[in-house]
Amino acid sequence: MRQPRVVIYRPVDESGATHDRMRAAGCEVIVESLDLPGAVPSAIACDADVLLGATFRGGIMDAEFLAQFPRLRLISKYTIGFDDVDLDVATQRGIAVTHCPTEANWGGVAEGTMAIMLAALKRVRERDRQVKAGGWRTAQLQGVYLGARQDGYKGITVGIIGLGRVGSRFAELLKPWGVRVIANDPYVSREKFLRAGAESMGLAELLSQADVVSLHCDLNAETRGLIGSHELQKMKRSAMLINTARGALVDFDALLTTLKNGRLAQAALDVFPVEPLPMDSRIDELGDKLVLSPHMVAANQGGTLNAAIPWATEVVIQALQGQFPARVVNPEVQQRWCRLFGDKPALVIPASA
């Protein structure tokens, strides 16, 4: 029997232990950087049964890319995100796409969002810079008090767009602060809003009421460009926009223009339409109106993706044994996948593996 071939296009397991586990199970494991600009898969890589890796930096695994892999049955992602794969094309081809929604990842995003928000509202950067420059207190360094107080101050309103894992955890983190939380997500139940302590409302209403708007939704055809010039105009002039989800959710040029015109007070971004972020003089002009982070809001000591390594390896073994794998993000592929691969296991694991 031909050895099933697993091509790791962007490795995460520095120890190589899970690579050895797959080899022990009977797989041929090849590490080849397929996601670098201009990369052309080798003939060996094109014979892959599985593509395994982290975020695909070469753009999108689209029809043209996937056509190079005629035997492919699985794309296993170490990451929680999967917008770097054209799911429609994968489904048409009968390719299952899996991801790893570990708490280390989505919980890290929620914590990072909280940190960015507090740093901006409490003027942490500005105060640090002031003291180091020999300055002291000024009115411009006053921060924002978040929660409601007994003296009648009502506190701020935080609007969350997308009440999935990250959005729900962010709402939980906000509870002790006593802020009003409003949320928009047409795909979750009323019970989830209640558990999160969030008031459900439409997008336009949320944008007009929130002092902080934080994005936590998937990137897809419906949400691409979700926040453009029209939506930004609906927000309060004093408001802050946070995006720690996906860069293409926001019209970046429209955001810079809105900030420059004073129509929006602040924005904090960990993600961008093009990464790494190209140099842009407009960004320098905005100063403290814009807080930037290099797409690592979830990166914490202990390894954001470490918990995902065994998960991603597990689904590889499942799929090669002819079992429909866990954590599939295109479940509509199941019938076609099972017809193509369910009765054709490529791997029989030795008892010692």
Give the gist of this structure.
This protein folds into 2 domains: 136 residues, 3-Layer(aba) Sandwich (Rossmann fold); 185 residues, Rossmann fold. Helix content is 33%, strand content 14%.
Overview of the molecule:
The structure is a single chain. With 353 residues, this protein is of the alpha/beta class. It has two domains: 5-102 and 305-342, Rossmann fold, CATH 3.40.50; 108-292, Rossmann fold (3-Layer(aba) Sandwich), CATH 3.40.50. Helices cover 33% and strands 14% of the residues. It has helices spanning 17-24, 43-46, 63-66, 87-93, 103-121, 124-132, 165-174, 190-196, 203-209, 229-234, 252-260, 281-286, 308-320, 334-342; strands at 5-10, 28-31, 50-53, 74-77, 96-98, 157-161, 180-184, 199-200, 212-215, 240-243, 266-269, 290-292. The chain has a seven-stranded parallel beta sheet with strand order 8-7-6-9-10-11-12, sandwiched between helices. A five-stranded parallel beta sheet has the order 2-1-3-4-5, with helices on both faces. Helix 1 (17-24) links the parallel strand 1 (5-10) and strand 2 (28-31). Helix 5 crosses helix 7 and helix 7 runs parallel beside helix 8 (190-196). The protein is elongated and about 75 Å long. It starts with a strand and ends in an 11-residue tail after the last helix.
